[in-house]
Structures are given as C-alpha cells and as structure tokens.
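## Example pair
The file below holds two records. Each record gives the amino-acid sequence first, followed by its structure token line.
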Amino acid sequence: MQQNRLWMVVGLGNPGDAYAKTRHNAGFMVVDEVAGSFSTFLKKRKPFPNLLLGHGSTRGIDFILVKPMTFMNRSGPSVKKYAEALSISFKDMLVVHDDIDLAFGRLKIKEKGGDGGHKGIRSLIDAFGGGDFVRLRIGVGRPEAEISVTDHVLSRFNTDEKGVLKQVITTAQDAVVTILCNGTKEGMNKFNSRRIVISS
C-alpha cells in the first residue's frame, strides 16, 4: 500500500451543459463518479478559478480531484499551476480521458506515453514538459467513415451505449481507486483485459 502519497486525479473534458454528456467528457464523468463515491464536492477555490477541485482519501491515500474548466486543448497550464502550488510531481498525477482508439466498454491504464492525438493530453504534456504521468483511457470507439473525429467525440453516446455507460463509469471509478491504493501494475492486470459489452 502506498502510504503518505498525495495523488492528483485529473479528469479531462469540456465545460458547459452542451458538452456534459458527450464522449469527450468521459474523464469528467469518471471524476464525478469518484467524487460521489467519497462524498467529495468539487468547487472552485482561490486562486485557481479555472479548476473545479475536491479532496478525498481512501485506505490511507489522499487524493485531489481536478476538473479543468478551460476547454480541452488548454487544460495543461491551469493544472500545472495547481500542481506546482501543492508540490505535486506529474509522476503523482493520474489523468482520466476518452480514447477513440479503444472500443466502447474498454479501459486501458498506461504509465506514460505520447498524446495519441488527444488535445487535452497534448496540452498537459506541453505544460509539464513530458508525458510521464499515468493515464486511464476510457474507450469511446472510432466514428463511422462518414463522421469526423471531432463530430464523433463531441457527440452523445447512442441508446445501446447508454444502457451500459453507468457500468463503464463505475468500473473506471474502481480502476482509479485500484491505481491510487495498489499501483498501476495491479490496475493494468485487473482492468486492461476487461471489456463491458453491450448485450444484444
């Protein structure tokens, strides 16, 4: 168990009701689920007007939940400013985000890497000067041939997907807690091979 470590859990998304239930906001959905599970309220705190923040703890592990209120491609600077204020290294940061390269219902934990074309991850890498932070990728699937990637990620989940979306988000919340308490390796072993399938 990783005692005396402060984690920062960053969910990526876009602010505003128009984006609230879209695929691109899967990171926000998971952080909201974690907050609800630990009765943590996310709110703005001075002097960080561009972030919603909450504090929680589980099994001796303290964590900060973060939702950037800038748009996706400008997530990095405000998160970096907050991390510096708390002296949190990016190695103690877990970023939760949508991923079109994973089928809907799949989760994948990575310890580090590039941006994979994700503008929120790219902004964080640019701000922190590297990609050595843990990611929890939430599969949202690739668009149909006639639909652009942008339109796809900014679209809402279809009826079939909505039927199991709660299960996907709850499983992702479990993955977050596993990473915080038991490390990324156990998280990978437990969640990377699982897929929540839409029943026919």
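Second record, same layout:
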Amino acid sequence: MLAPQNAKAEGKSQLTAVLLSFFLGALGIDRFYLGYTGIGILKLLTLGVFGILALIDFIRILIGDLKPKNGEYAKKL
C-alpha cells in the first residue's frame, strides 16, 4: 500500500539532515538519510561531485526544498 503524498517521513528531522549535510555531505550521508540511495552513492564516490553538489544539497535542505523521499519532515527547523 502506498503512503499518501503529504505524509510525514517517519522520524526524519530537518535539523538532523542539515547537520549531516554540513559535516558529511561530501560523503552522501545526507542523501542516504533522506532515502535517496542512488545519489548518495554518487556523492560518496565523487566526494559530493567535487563539493558542488554537497553545497547545493546543504542549501536546499536548509531552506526546506530538499525533502525526504517518502514525504515531509516530521520535525522542521
């Protein structure tokens, strides 16, 4: 059974995602946390596509544009 589009992601915190992105974004840990495994692997193998994607992801998570794969954040900033 599919989850509704506006469902909150189970236990995903925007603050946790921001901190993971800031400290471990070049390794793709933020994308793994949010459920985007493919892009997480890409960032891991390329060091955040040489830092550019890591910076973009950090900003997108901070402003709330990059959300968990299965819905909204359970806890927002």
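Notes on the second record: The mean pLDDT is 91. The longest helix spans residues 37-50.
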